Amino acid sequence: MPAPAAETTEAPARNGEPTATERNPGTPLDESWVRASRVNPSATQRRAATLPTRRSIKKEWQAAWLLRAVSCIDLTTLKGDDTPSNVRRLCAKARQPVRPDLLAAMGFGDDNRERDLTVGAVCVYHRRVPDALDALEGSGIPVAAVSTGFPAGLSPFETRLDEIERSAAAGADEIDVVVTREHVLRENWQLLYDEVRRMREACGDAHMKTILATGELGPLWHTLQASKVCMMAGADFIKTSTGMEAVNATLENGLVMTRAIREYHERTGHVVGFKPAGGIRSAKEALGWLILIKEELGDDWLTSARFRFGASSLLADIERQLSHHVTGRYAARVLPATWSCQQHYDLAGAIGRMFGCRTPARAPTCCIQPFLCSMNREEALHKHISDMCAVEQHICDAVVRQRDDDRLKNNVEANQVVIEIERVLKNHLDALNDLAESYDQQVQSTAKEALGKVLGVAAGLYDRARGKPPLSRDMRDNYVALSLAAMAYTQFHTFGLAVGEDRIADLASEHLKEITPLLVEISKVLPDITAGEITEDADFPTDGSIARQATANTQAAWAPSVTGGAGEGTVSPTSETEPSAATT
Q1: Does residue 275 carry a catalytic annotation?
Q2: Which of 93, 275, 383, 448 is flagged as catalytic?
Q3: Residue 450 has pLDDT above 50, yes or no
Q4: Last residue of a domain, one of 326, 344, 360
Q5: How much is the pLDDT for 437?
Q6: Which among 439, 436, 410, 529 is positioned nearest to 479, based on CA atoms?
Q7: What is this structure's pTM?
Q8: Is 239 a residue of the active site?
Q9: Domain range holding 423?
Q10: Is residue 209 annotated as a catalytic residue, yes or no?
């Protein structure tokens, strides 16, 4: 299949970068060049291991590199429950990824040129492309759409081509496509070339980023060979991963792919960009990737036109490091004022052991409640709303995944409780986001890291620690996590009263009332689940009929404290005393 002539597309100027982005027209397939590819795995691993240490980047230089990293982020949301409001919030963050006061303190834009700092692109599913385009209108920020049966890429080929054409017709500036891994594993380079070439044609004027899913390709030379074939087929970017493989972006694969780009450029003169994606969460990791690009491809590739990070949580850590550079301290965390950093760390360790998770190697640096720290009133409001969203989102994400468990589906009562938990939490998140918008604020991210806060540590560990424990443990964890949310709402309500914000106080009170009945319902079904598991798993005689008695006894034990004196053995979810679920 002949390759078209070189193309150049115009894009709005951003961050002082060139306004023209050269397309890769591709070349005819040269299988001899592909099959001649060789990789020394041990040498590649050694080189990748030493790359981050080759340059010591400190102080203002580190801040400058991190600002460059921000401009190269594809800010991404690829969740099944994405909504227009989620995408609008993400796009607001894309327009203003770093707080203006931090940028001003670092002198960003002092040269009087138009240098608004934005991310490289916003990446969403096809259905959310119109929402992203509306939210980013006039910003010059490209909208990228994942396509072709993302992330597996196993839908019928014509269906995948139709997805690309629909996204391009909807206005997507970039299309992230996934290749058929089987072609690589079988080393059928002609099929891979033809597939990517057809995808390139379907993209039209939209730039195509080709995802190799390197974690599923086997040996490193497959990554090198697949990179070459995709570039010859016309890929404008080659991308490591979907972010959903067991192994995502690694410096070893990055080293192989960037050398393929360099070799292709030397061979043809065509420019191809590079995008690592998946698992890049810290500013330190971002610096390692920037060093890789500078060492292997040079400064010309250190722009958003030729290099991107695929990330959803990286930006939060970069902004945190920039805040530390400007202020000398990390951003305030929500912690009770009477607790020391070591006490919070010890509690985090206890929670981590309970959920089977590892905790940080040292105690985090922290400070007291935001409204007692060096924050103005607006910042304190924003911080509290964002943190409450983080706690609820972590719990909601885990509960949604729990719904897929066949054991839960087979227990009608427990399944109904979990469905109700999910409904309540999603309603809470919508209300919190509406509250943020009423203050003309944008929640930084509803998936924002909550680690380092007492409530956030527990919720975050809960979100990530879901394996295949007994159903009784799942329900117990639901109880613990919701109790933590109730504690958070108690603080949130108190904060609202303290600063004279009735909307916050009332919302927190209403949400607390809705969480308390969920705790009651969990406590009702837990004895029956536990009794059944004991009867099924024990190697000694047991009495599974005691579930009803256990339920009555446990309800009677704590009902008075929850209901403020309700009748023995009964629980009143509608009690007017507004109990704190934490006391249970």
Answers
A1: yes
A2: 275
A3: no
A4: 326
A5: 74
A6: 529
A7: 0.58
A8: yes
A9: 332-583
A10: no
